[in-house]
Amino acid sequence: MAPGSRCCLLLLLLLLLAVLGAPALGDPGPLEDVVIDRYYIPKICLREAQMGDFIRYHYNGTFKDGKKFDSSYDRGATVAGVVGVGRLITGMDRGLQGMCVNERRHLIVPPHLGYGSIGVAGLIPPDATLYFDVVMLDIWNKNDKLQITTLSKPERCNRTVENSDFVRYHYNGTLLDGTPFDSSYSKGSTYDTYVGTGWLIKGMDQGLLGMCAGEKRSIIIPPFLAYGEKGYGTVIPPQASLVFSVLLVDFHNPKDGVFLEHLEVPETCKRRAVTGDFVRYHYNGTLMDGTLFDSSYSRNQTYNTYIGKGYIIPGMDQGLQGVCIGEHRRVVIPPHLAYGENGAGDKIPGSAVLIFDVHIIDFHNPADPVEIETVFRPEGCNVTSRHRDFVRYHYNCSLLDGTRLFSSHDYEKPQEVTLGANKVIEGLNSGLLDMCAGERRVLIVPPHLGHGESGARGVPGSAVLRFEVELISMEEGVPEGYLFIWHGEPPANLYEQMDLNKDGEIPAEEFSTFIKSQVAEGKGRLMPSSDPEKVIADMFQNQDRNQDGKITPEELKLKSDEDQEKIHEEL
Question: Which positions carry the signal peptide feature in this UniProt record (predicted)?
Fold first, then answer.
């Protein structure tokens, strides 16, 4: 048939229908079923309402002319019920099936699927076609289970939540349609509670089990595991499914002790810290979610304290027991061994688990002596250094973590000192005693024999020092308080022998010449020194009592005679 013929036939049919009184194309006549217009469908539809599901929805009901006959919005409450089991008018039962949460539909319900030829007295006339604007808010079934989705999880998870654990978590709580009803973030603090003891709704009690600190979860809880038929206040309607987005900040059990993780232990550990030891250590302190609350590194200063004495929180007192010098250790402390329910300041919340990453710099005990290790001792060593000897030695000084402090090799000559003259720290002085020339030692000097709590320039307070020493040479010393001693009895006519030109007075040059001659002849010896001339000059000054540049017979006195007179002068 030609296209023109088909067009003429269509026009004839339309004219015939009009003559016979048939409805026009714009008037479909009585509806046989519900007309559904899905005018908004959410992009994500996890579930569609099925026969037997419990649903919650809002609606406006109108007639064809737009006149409202009912509205859940006007009552301020959603409608809850079971779909597809005859509890609703047939048209609504059919029109709600297959809806997603947050989907919006226009429903046209013909009279025979609504209130029929009877209607509702005073509200809906007989044979009324009903128009509904519906939004689906919630869908659930009595066979539903908790829906848990892990959003993120830390790589390290040594432990997960169990019943009776105390948890601290942040959450956002919404209804299934996304309406927020509560948030811990808005309160500025975590929600803290025990798990599995009935303090939470059943769904949350179950939903938190197995979580790691730092894990994020989405937990969808059906009403029968939440607030059920009663709802909660004005924010959670009856029969509402709840959606919680949860971040577990930390958790512990009241029975927990301190947990230790040995991150790095030196191969050689000669000694471990015990109660009463004084420890110097660096640390980073974090919460379980990684939030840094304190760090000794930021202050560029170690934390120094006794352990086992109650000067620090109990958990750290326990956690530092048995550490080695140089060890890196992680100490995880439950709140009952830290700052408890009250926390500390504005950085440590109440009931917070604390994690300390610790590096032990050194430790000592106030009763420690100098630790001496002989590295090399020459054979045939018969003469050793003694108190008051003058020694020359090389040294390298460092902290126990290897930090270099001082070295005699940085200078042209070895270090020189008279042992026992209080010119070096006590620990080094002790370590240089009883050494042979050429001997090498390692000395570990505790701070009470070193630079003490205050330290010194370049030396931290309470630091244990490590010295590598080599004795180069030594000279026999003289008793304390003496600059010169006789090997035998001094001359009976000492002044006359010292007065070389016999003019009745002894100037400095004459005094120096005489003393040098006595040393050269082996009759006496000077206090060892790198500058003998200064020693002789000091001797002369001590004898020149009126400081007139010469010694008279009345001024010259032997040291032994002065000691008897309680006068501490020289010669």
Answer: 1-26
Instruction: Please choose, from the candidates 369, 482, 473, the residue with its C-alpha nearest in 3D space to the C-alpha of residue 420.
Output: 482
Residues 6+ apart with CB under 8 A from 367: none
pLDDT at residue 477 in the model: 86
Domain boundaries, the chain: 35-140, 147-252, 259-364, 371-475, 484-570
* Residue 311 designated active-site: no
User: Of 3.20.20.150, 3.40.1080.10, 3.10.50.40, 3.40.50.980, which CATH number belongs to 259-364?
Assistant: 3.10.50.40
Residue 132 is among the residues annotated as catalytic for this protein = yes
pLDDT attached to residue 9 = 37
User: Is there a contact between 96 and 136 (Cβ–Cβ < 8 Å)?
Assistant: yes
Which of 63, 69, 306, 495 is flagged as catalytic? 69
Residue 484 DSSP label: E
Compute the distance between CA of residue 345 and CA of residue 338 in angstroms, rounded to an integer.
13
What is the reported pLDDT for 564? 55
Q: Which helix (H) or strand (E) holds 160?
A: none
pLDDT of residue 24: 39
Distances (CA, A) of 208 to 218, 341, 364: 10, 21, 46
Low-confidence ranges of the chain (pLDDT < 70): 1-29, 559-571
